[in-house]
Known about the structure:
Elements: H1 2-63, H2 68-81, H3 88-125, H4 129-138, H5 144-172
Amino acid sequence: KRQASTESTSSKRHSHLALKCVGGLVILAAVLLVILHVAQQEKKRVIDAAQLELTEIGDFCRINPTAYHVAIQRYDTLISHLGCSDYAKLRQSALAKRKSLENAQKNHVEKVMKDLREEIQPLIEQRQFVRAASIISSFNGDMANETLQERMRLADTLNEQAIHSSRTRGSTGNE
């Protein structure tokens, strides 16, 4: 009888221990589900915010078509927040839009410089290098900041041509 009682007590302890283990697993599963839900909510929040920022940058570019620098910085900030692989598709979209904007900026700078060169070409042909340099260096239209270095190099070249031209004229006696 004692052995049956011991087996019954042991069986009860095993059943009690098994219930505790199952209860612990249920609690662990519930905690993991909560963590997973919170992570999914955070991912959704980041995706929604990133999509909104992409839309806002696009709107900004339409309203401020020559503010490339500001828009590119906004893309850089967005891209840095989309670093993990969970956001790879959005990151690729932002990178592609940033690259497109950089190309548009480059094309715009090239067009402005081409237009400026065409504007000063008659002055160069007339050997009015100082006047041409002045037009180039004082330009304050579209993309003035973005073209500043290239314009200053061109103005320096024109000023050097003016000096060379005046020396040449002075040595030949022609004016």
